[in-house]
Write a structure and sequence with these properties.
Layout (H helix, E strand, L loop, with lengths): L3 E4 L6 E4 L6 E2 L3 E2 L3 H26 L1 H21 L3 H29 L5 H32 L4
Helix pairs in contact: 1-2, 1-3, 2-3
Length: about 150
C-alpha cells in the first residue's frame, strides 16, 4: 500500500495517510514483533545447542542431524499453514530448535572430517557457503539479468 500525501491542519507539512497502526509482516505479525521473534529463536537455539552437542558426542552426529532436519520440516510446515501470531511464534521456536540441533553439529562434522592441516580452510569454505545466501538478494538480480542476456532460457 503506497502512502498518500495529505497536508496537516497547518497545510505546510504532510503526513502519511492510510498506513495502519501497526505494519504487518506475514499478514498477521506486527513488524514490531519481528525482533521478539528473533530473540525467541536465539534463546531456543542457545538453550538447546550445548545439550545437543553433548548428546551427539555420545550417540553420534548423523542421527541428531536427521532429527534437526525433521524439526526444520515441521517448522516450515507450521509457517506454511500459520494463521496467527501464535503459530508464527511456534514455527519460530521450532526454527530455533533446528538451529540448536544442526549448527554446532555441522561445525563438529567439519572438524571430525577435515585434515588437521586444512581444518581452517574447511571452516572458511563452510563459512563462505553459509554466508553467501545473505548476499543473494543483492547479487542475484544483477547476476540473473547478466546471465539471461548471454544464455536465453528458451
Amino acid at each position: 500500500m503506497k502512502p498518500e500525501r495529505q497536508p496537516d491542519a497547518s497545510g505546510e507539512k504532510w503526513r502519511l495517510k492510510s498506513i495502519p497502526q501497526t505494519i504487518w509482516a506475514l499478514g498477521f505479525v506486527s513488524m514490531f514483533m519481528v525482533p521478539a521473534l528473533m530473540v525467541l529463536m536465539n534463546v531456543v537455539t542457545s538453550l538447546t545447542a550445548y545439550p545437543v552437542e553433548r548428546l551427539s558426542d555420545r550417540i553420534g552426529r548423523t542421527g541428531m542431524m536427521a532429527v534437526g532436519l525433521v524439526v526444520l520440516i515441521a517448522s516450515d510446515l507450521i509457517f506454511a499453514v500459520a494463521n496467527g501470531g501464535w503459530a508464527v511464534a511456534a514455527g519460530t521456536a521450532l526454527w530455533g530448535l533446528h538451529m540448536g540441533l544442526t549448527q554446532g553439529l555441522l561445525s563438529a562434522m567439519i572438524a571430525d572430517n577435515a585434515r588437521q592441516d586444512l581444518r581452517g580452510t574447511a571452516f572458511g569454505i563452510f563459512s563462505l557457503a553459509s554466508g553467501w545466501p545473505a548476499f543473494s538478494p543483492v547479487l542475484s538480480p544483477a547476476g540473473c539479468g547478466k546471465a539471461s542476456q548471454h544464455q536465453p532460457l528458451s
